[in-house]
DNA sequence: AACGTGCGCAACCGCCCCGCG
DNA sequence: GCGCGGGGCGGTTGCGCACGT
């Protein structure tokens, strides 16, 4: 642990790299590749430690690096990814071609955190700052609850003051259980644009229902070729979402919608998702894939089917590795039968618009999702 | 012009993980 | 199983620049 042995060696330069050093390192790696980093400085004739060389190469000399300021799309994407991945800068950077983890980390610490706070968002958990107080309130309520609810089913509910949401009524159950019953007074959506239910299961991520941005709330009827797809829960359900309170995180799994979209105004958000789509196509999938669900391009087929396993069984890694969008949420009906919905959006690199899989109608009937 | 302040960025530090002997 | 070294990552620092007073 601690310092690497190379750092103890004498006469090793530290600090800023000179153009001559850059030139030496660049020339060496271009010709020989880096191989074992610890041997690079010696071979390249540099008075640096291997780690320093590696860092310099990765963060500055690499030929595929993108220079210049971050675009709005990139910033939005970083925010969304951070909501999912937390401070896993290398994983975030992996989704932004030409950007380094260091660059993204710097941007986050110097700029994005500030922006989020200005928008009233806690950058550490992507929740509205005022919700922290509410959350504490709910935790107290939870402590009095007799019910024990699997964390994998937890979801926080934030009902904004926005009058647009009077189609939903919610109340705490009278029996002190930690449920909030949501009774849609008209059709109740899980919408790929607005994410009525959102969030992710990542350990540090906090999910909630971002009701703040419902300008585009879509109450149109679902159509197979609707673009983008909209998931809608049957209005006949008086749905209970489990549970209303959580001491830590919400883990209802909703892969296709990171919980940060409300940060951006609609235009920005659409731009961001389009970027995701493009990147997803370029990278052949991975984490961008679920972002594709929000996009209006780049994925071709989509299908909805139920998930047999518990929501908690769905590993976050699946979101990261799968080439598909996966949107999973749990919704417990009055019959106490959880309904898990998993949406997969298959995309292709040709940028064509998505279409729903042909059998989705049958599936939606079977599971009474729509 | 001089000074103070804030900010962005490059680089370092410290730790963890993993492979190897 | 253990120690060591390399690679990698996230957190932090400090330099240099821009800007305001």
From TrEMBL:
Keywords: DNA-binding, Nucleus, Repeat, Transcription, Transcription regulation. Transmembrane segments: none annotated. SMART domains: SANT. InterPro entries: Homeodomain-like_sf, Myb_dom, Plant_SW-associated_TFs, SANT/Myb. Residues 9-65, 66-116 form the HTH myb-type domain. SUPFAM superfamilies: Homeodomain-like. Coiled coil: none annotated. It comes from the Eukaryota. It is found in: Nucleus. Residues 347-370 are annotated as: Disordered. The keyword Nucleus applies. One of its GO terms (cellular component) is nucleus. GO terms for molecular function: DNA binding. Residues 9-61, 62-112 form the Myb-like domain. This is MYB transcription factor. It comes from Paeonia suffruticosa. The lineage of its organism: Eukaryota, Viridiplantae, Streptophyta, Embryophyta, Tracheophyta.
């Amino acid at each position: 642990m601690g310092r690497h042995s190379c750092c103890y060696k004498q006469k090793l330069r530290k600090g800023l790299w000179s153009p001559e050093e850059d030139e030496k390192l660049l020339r060496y790696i271009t010709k020989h590749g880096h191989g074992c980093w610890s041997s690079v400085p010696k071979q390249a004739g540099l008075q640096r430690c291997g780690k320093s060389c590696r860092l310099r190469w990765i963060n500055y000399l690499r030929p595929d690096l993108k220079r210049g300021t971050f675009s709005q799309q990139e910033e939005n994407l970083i925010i969304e990814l951070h909501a999912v991945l937390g401070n896993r800068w290398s994983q975030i950077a992996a989704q932004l071609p030409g950007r380094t983890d260091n660059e993204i980390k710097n941007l986050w610490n110097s700029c994005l955190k500030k922006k989020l706070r200005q928008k009233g968002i806690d950058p550490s958990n992507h929740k509205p700052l005022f919700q922290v107080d509410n959350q504490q309130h709910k935790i107290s309520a939870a402590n009095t609850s007799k019910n024990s609810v699997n964390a994998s089913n937890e979801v926080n509910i934030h009902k904004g003051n926005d009058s647009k949401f009077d189609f939903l009524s919610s109340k705490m159950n009278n029996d002190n259980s930690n449920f909030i019953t949501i009774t849609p007074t008209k059709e109740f959506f899980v919408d790929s644009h607005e994410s009525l239910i959102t969030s992710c299961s990542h350990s540090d991520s906090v999910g909630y229902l971002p009701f703040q941005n419902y300008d585009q709330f879509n109450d149109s009827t679902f159509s197979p070729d609707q673009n983008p797809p909209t998931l809608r829960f049957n209005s006949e359900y008086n749905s209970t979402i489990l549970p209303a309170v959580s001491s830590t995180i919400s883990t209802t799994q909703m892969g296709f919608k990171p919980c940060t979209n409300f940060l951006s105004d609609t235009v920005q958000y659409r731009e961001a998702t389009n970027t995701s789509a493009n990147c997803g196509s370029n990278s052949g999938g991975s984490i961008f894939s679920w972002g594709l669900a929000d996009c209006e391009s780049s994925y071709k087929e989509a299908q909805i089917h139920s998930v047999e396993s518990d929501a908690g069984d769905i590993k976050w890694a699946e979101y990261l590795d799968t080439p598909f969008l996966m949107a999973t949420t749990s919704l417990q009906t009055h019959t106490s039968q959880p309904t898990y919905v998993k949406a997969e959006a298959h995309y292709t690199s040709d940028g064509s618009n998505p279409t729903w899989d042909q059998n989705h109608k049958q599936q939606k009937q079977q599971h009474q999702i729509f």
